[in-house]
Amino acid sequence: MTVSRLHQFSPQRTNPDDLESILVARASLLESTMDKIRSSSTTKNRYHLLFVGQRGIGKTHMVALINRRVELDKKLASKVRIAWLNEDETSSRFLHLLLRIYRSLSARYPDEFPIQDVQSVLGMAADDALAKLSKVLVQRTKNHTILLLIENLDAHFAKFSVEEQRSWRGFMQDHPIFTTVATAQGLFDGVKKHDEPFFGFFDTHHLQPLSVEQTAEMLMKIAVLQDHSALQQMLNTPKGQSRLRVIHFLAGGNPRLYVLLSELIADDTLDDVVDTFEAMVDQQLTSYYQERLRWLAPLQQDIVQVLCRFRSAVSVKQIAEELFTTNQSVSSQLKELKGFGYVAFTKVGRETRYELAEPLMRLVMQVKETGSHQPLSLLVEFLQAWFDREELERKRGSHVRESTSWRYFESAIDTYDQFLKQWPELERLDAPKKKPRTIEELNAIIDSPETSTDKKAEALSDRAWAWYETRDWHKLVSDSTLLIDLDINSDDFRKPLGVWFRQRGWVSLGEFSKAIDDIPVLSSLLGEKHVSKHSLSFFLAALTTLDSASLDVPVGLLLERVVKLGVESELGAALVELLGCEMLQKWADMIKTWNAVWQRLGANIPGLVVPLRLLDTASNYLVTERCECLLKLPLEERKLLMEVLRVPNDSF
Asked: Which element (helix H / strand E) includes 136?
């Protein structure tokens, strides 16, 4: 069987059928775009679309599929003429752009757009050449519509003067022969400033990074396409899904990186993948990001470089400390960087944390700071996320010492323990490879006076898992309490796990007040001064295990406690966050009851008005699967709910 080749940096060179087969998250956007192109070909309407997103997000993939679908639709292809411009070329004048458009048409439709038309204007005065070529293009187009596929539109506008932009806009208004599909790395002045010629001209769609679920879908499609059965099997296991969440964090939802990483999974030899990464950095990304940094003010450049060093989102205070400046100075610059598309932010309680909007920028900085023979940490972390220590050691042994592949596995093994401290759930996932300890063995470890506190915590955690799986709720509560009371570090993940176990046991035993009493206990373990959204989320997750007839009592008790503590807004945030839980979204047979209970018992609590409105709307949407349900919400609430439910922006 011939394995399909996916060209990461030139999707237009990939087999179009393969591009179709791995498409995720953008199917509805692609369909709506095709509908607009069809409308442009049969009516006087002319649509102009702009896809905006970071490098590697899939813009060229979309353009390639649009090109393919037009070609395959014989009726549409008879009415449309495609001009797909080379993405690496830009124009500084409208005349130059028009020449490129005509040459593209001539290459594709030589009989309809003879190249002699271009040759006839060469050497003429620019104004005369523009006038003649414009007239010829309109005449040659006849009753067709030209579909202009133009990538990196922001680079064109960076070279176009305002006068050249006016010439382009004026031509398109006077001669409505074009419908446009363009791409850009981000919004730019030429389309977002009110006084610019193209303000309001494009219907703009922002291509978002893939979610964890979309990432899993894409990798599964790649695995099927390339007949990689081992990857298919792994992705269908809890272990594979957990590892995928870590990889999603490392890659930042960037599809290009996932395609590269899928090659790494499929092949034990890393050399080709490393070469591909380095070529991507050297040939495509370095100059781009260096130029983007040069656009920024000095303090903004420093902030971006600080964020490149951090994998997770950081606070204003952390950035200010790194740069020996004030929080106020950093805050004002971060606001501008967000507007420029360099940074993204996340709210954590009252604090805002910032990170790079484009993970590929971090990769560029990483490569430039790494010695020529040193492994790239992104690839090393990927290996650590996907393979356990035993597999890493086995793979290292299969390669020649000091070869590129050997160095990567060696580096992954050397820093494996450090990596697992960041992702302790991966360490637990390795446990099934070892022979499970019996209850008798765990009892002996726990009861022995020679057992260290840490080993006792590990054994109690394992025994609690056993009680949880066998639904022995009394023993689960007992072991969870022992685990919580152990003298281990308060930030040890096993203490919060113990609280969750105990809450789950109390809820299943109908001891709802005791389960609610554990909410502030969990908050304290998480280092929070007050009851927070996170600790409330644990309790809400436990309630989802109850049948509908048992909900009134715990929800009523919880609302009483929440009002007494004054944390209604935190409960509202936890309720909304729970709507994004995949389990809840599959819970259609009970979602109506869950919603009804909350609406009835929480109706008179002012702090829950908006969350309950979102819950009610989400319930209708999850049951009916009709996007129209969302339209009754104000725009800002609708956007929030669509993000939580992962509803595409173009669903309407």
From this structure: helix 126-141
CA dihedral 316, 322, 328, 329 (to 10 degrees): -120
Check residue 1 and give its pLDDT. 34
333 touches 300 (CB < 8 A): yes
CATH topology of domain 26-206: Rossmann fold (3.40.50)
Please state, in angstroms and rounded to a whole number, the distance separating the CA atoms of residues 582 and 646. Answer: 10
Residue 9: per-residue pLDDT: 47
Query: Which segments of 49-93 does DSSP mark as H helices, in order?
Result: 59-72, 74-77
Sign of CA dihedral 252, 255, 260, 263: positive
Q: How far apart are CA 403 and CA 390, in angstroms?
A: 20
DSSP class of residue 349?
A: T
Parallel/antiparallel/unpaired status of strands 203-206 and 343-348 = unpaired
Q: How far apart are CA 430 and CA 427, in angstroms?
A: 5
Q: Which CATH class is domain 213-428?
A: mainly alpha
Beta-carbon neighbour count of residue 389 at 10 Å?
A: 16
Residue appearing with tokens 């040890």? 492
**If DSSP codes are grouped into helix, strand and coil, which group holds residue 360?**
helix
Q: CA separation (Å) from 545 to 204, 329, 497, 498? A: 42, 48, 17, 18
The whole-angstrom separation of Cα 122 and Cα 103 is 13
What is the C-alpha to C-alpha distance for residues 488 and 470, in angstroms, rounded to an integer?
A: 27
Contact between 577 and 347 under an 8 Å Cβ cutoff? The reply is no
The pLDDT tens digits for 128-162 are 999 999 999 999 999 999 999 999 898 888 888 99
Q: DSSP assignment, residue 431? A: G
Beta bridge partners of 83: 148
Task: Kindly state the average pLDDT of the residues 593-598.
Answer: 86
* Residues whose CB is less than 8 angstroms from the CB of residue 399 and which lie 6 or more positions away in sequence, other chains included: 268, 405, 406, 409
The percent of residues in the chain predicted with pLDDT above 90, rounded, is: 23
Residues recorded for the chain: 652
Beta strands 314-315 and 351-356 are: antiparallel
Q: What is the pTM of this model?
A: 0.55
Same fold for the domain at 26-206 and the one at 213-428? no
Give the span between the Cα atoms of 438 and 455, in whole angstroms.
Answer: 15
Distance between CA 110 and CA 462 in Å, rounded? 72
- Tens-place pLDDT, residues 111-133: 999 999 999 999 899 999 999 99
What are the sequence ranges of the domains in the chain? 26-206, 213-428, 436-509, 533-652
Of residues 454 and 120, the one with the higher pLDDT is 120
Sign of the dihedral through C-alpha 142, 145, 151, 152: positive
For 25-52, how does the pLDDT look when each residue is reduced to its tens digit (9 = 90+)?
Answer: 888 899 999 999 999 999 989 999 999 8
Provide the Cα torsion 488, 490, 494, 496; round to 10°.
150
Tell me the per-residue pLDDT of 361-414, one tens digit each, with 9 for 90 and over.
766 666 655 555 577 777 787 778 777 788 788 778 777 777 777 888 888 888
Tell me the pLDDT of the chain averaged across its residues: 81
Distance in Å from the first CA to the final CA of the chain? 41
What is the DSSP secondary-structure string of 165-227? HHHHHHHHHHS--EEEEEEESS--HHHHSTTSTTTTTSEEEE-PPPPHHHHHHHHHHHHHHTT
Please identify which residue in the block is written with the tokens 């394992």. Answer: 462
Contact 554, 571 (CB under 8 A): no
Query: Does residue 323 contact residue 315 with C-beta atoms inside 8 Å?
Result: no
The pLDDT value given to residue 481: 92
pLDDT value, residue 3: 43
